[in-house]
Design a protein that fits this description.
The chain has about 375 residues and is mostly helical. The chain has 16 helices and three strands. It folds into two domains: about 220 residues, Citrate Synthase, domain 1; about 100 residues, Cytochrome p450-Terp, domain 2. About 60% of the residues lie in helices and about 5% in strands. Helix 1 packs antiparallel against helix 8 and helix 5 packs antiparallel against helix 10. The longest helix is centred in the middle third of the chain and has 25 residues. It binds coenzyme A. Coenzyme A binds next to loops.
């Protein structure tokens, strides 16, 4: 009998969720019913993080309390900080993020407690400490002094401050905040599904997020924003873009930052991020990457009818902000911790072990020949 194999779980609905949905009627990604671009326009990232984790937008008082907890939890333990100092300087920052969250799991007093209350407390610790751990590594590998977090700065401002020692222009901070909002959640993508799968064995949240980070690292997922920058660096200048992309397509190359498993006629997050990419380019007085962006996008749509995904505009935006290319996907991590966590909480609340079947194509039954007779 031939079994009906759904490779890549294409089109398979495996569970229910209340966290997010791409709503075709408004052609938009929505978090808890709110369009992501509406949230970008009216909220800062902390409000959206609260929404994703708690189901509703916060009141002023709730937001203040949420921010107070996040800021209080920013401090890293001595062990974690010492470990980061000892990591090989050439480590990929995604591996640093993954290992840092894993170490947090060793240290957390509530690691074994999978209750919703304990999980929410643990989320706040992972959410607050991961950017601090990453920024520490950012400085250490450049031989620079680590900058401690500042509690009077917002989540985004603080990340810039810890990496660069100063908070940039407000347009830059807003663009970064917008990118975090757009990266925060996207339903059953591969890293979220990984987190839910790990959770489904009733494992803990640090393990689930560690696994999710490993999954996000891949170039077919979060790693695409870094690949976009490598591509733009190869293209070098707008005059080369047309030839470069046409050659790439002639050679049947996969062009990073294009295509999506869910969106087939355009990622609803792209227009917002494109707008902020433009604002950053204006502040930085550097239009080169925008020109390359437009040429490559036009060819991809004209020749292949494949549209950009959100990693296409975030790559050059982070570059213009001054981040090293291998920090682009870690920035995605510090945002997506919120979405992963909401799914982990949801999975614990109505768990069913995730255990699909496979169609066996190996040897038929055979007897073991003892070692001296093989
Ligand atoms: C995201 C992605 C993995 C989705 O994959 P998918 O839903 O499995 O779709 P497929 O890979 O089967 O693509 C369908 C067709 O479009 C082509 N295609 C899809 N994305 C493409 C891209 N970025 N560049 C060139 N061709 C692409 C495929 O080659 C395939 O063509 P074929 O039918 O002639 O074989 C895929 O689009 C991709 O690899 N994109 C680049 C990586 C990226 O930007 N990832 C971030 C996602 S948010």
């Amino acid at each position: 009998m031939t079994e009906d194999i759904k490779k890549g779980l294409l089109g398979i609905v495996v569970d229910e969720t209340e966290v997010s949905k791409v709503m075709p009627e408004i052609n938009s990604l929505t978090y808890r019913g709110y369009a992501a671009q509406d949230l970008c326009a009216k909220c800062k990232f902390e409000e959206v993080a609260y929404l994703i984790l708690n189901g509703e937008l916060p009141s002023e008082k709730q937001l203040k309390n949420f921010e107070k907890v996040e800021r209080k939890e920013r401090k890293l333990s001595k062990t974690l900080l010492e470990s980061i100092k000892n990591f090989p300087k050439k480590s990929h920052p995604m591996d640093v993020a993954r290992t840092a969250v894993s170490i947090m799991g060793l240290e957390d007093k509530e690691t074994k407690d999978n209750s919703q209350e304990a999980n929410l407390r643990k989320v706040m610790r992972i959410f607050a400490k991961t950017p601090v751990a990453l920024a520490a590594f950012y400085r250490i590998r450049k031989g620079k002094k680590i900058i401690k977090p500042k509690n009077n700065l917002s989540f985004s401002e603080n990340f810039f401050y810890m990496c660069f020692g100063k908070v940039p222009e407000k347009e830059i901070v807003k663009a970064f905040d917008v990118s975090l909002v757009l990266y925060a959640e996207h339903s059953f993508n591969v890293s979220t599904f990984t987190a839910r799968t790990i959770t489904s064995s009733l494992s803990d949240i640090h393990g689930a997020i560690t696994g999710a980070i490993a999954s996000l690292k891949g170039p077919l997922h979060g790693g695409a924003n870094e690949e976009v920058m490598h591509m733009m660096n190869k293209i070098k200048k707008p005059e080369n873009a047309l030839n470069w992309i046409n050659n790439a397509l002639d050679q049947k190359a996969v062009v990073m930052g294009f295509g999506h498993r869910v969106y087939k006629s355009g990622d609803s997050r792209v227009p917002t991020m494109r707008e902020y990419f433009s604002k950053v380019a204006r502040v930085k007085k550097d239009k080169k990457f925008e020109k390359i962006y437009d040429i490559v996008e036009k060819v991809m749509i004209d020749r292949k009818n494949i549209h950009p995904n959100v990693d296409y505009p975030t790559g050059p935006t982070y570059h213009l902000m001054g981040f090293d290319t291998d920090f682009f996907t870690p920035i995605f991590v510090i945002s997506r911790i919120t979405g992963w966590s909401a799914h982990i909480l949801e999975q614990h609340a109505a768990n069913k072990l995730i255990r699909p079947l496979a169609s066996y194509k190996g040897n038929s039954y055979r007897k073991v020949v003892p070692l001296n007779q093989r």
